[in-house]
Description:
This protein is of the alpha+beta class. It contains 2 helices and 13 strands, in the order ββββββαββββββαβ. It is elongated and about 65 Å long.
Amino acid sequence: MSRIGRKPIDVPGGVKLTVAECHVTVEGPLGKLELEHRPEITVVHDPEAKQIRCDRRDDQRLSRALHGLTRALIQNMIVGVTAGYEKRLELIGVGYIATVQHNHLELRVGLANELRKPIPAGLSVACPDQQHIVIRGVDKQLVGQFAAETRALRKPEPYKGKGIRYFGEAVRRKQGKAMAK
């Protein structure tokens, strides 16, 4: 049996949980999230123990794969509506600037044109200074996806290290052709 799938999920106070047929709704102080899970998995909510359990109906390969996944998705939803998720990006390079204007993230990262990326609904993006970007939201997947798409606009290059990187990310540096001799 799945080690992750069989662990119960604790529901903290202040979180309203609704479990229907294959539909789970989690509502907390930061927002509301919904999940439509596969019918191979049954989700049981015990309001007295303040826990959720995920069980699978059979031992088929697909059911085993979805068991831990469904439990992890519900756990992420509960963490998202109570504490939220955050990703930090930093811009490394001379003249690299990030600003937020009119629901768009504007980046100057050494290209001929300024890059404008629309901010999706449900996310808050802030730039505490011109070299840092903070992405916050309740949906873990949405926060991570937007951070990855923003980083992909100008990945850190291995020779000088310039580009957009996650805060604290170590970029492996290369020596360059001058050091080959």
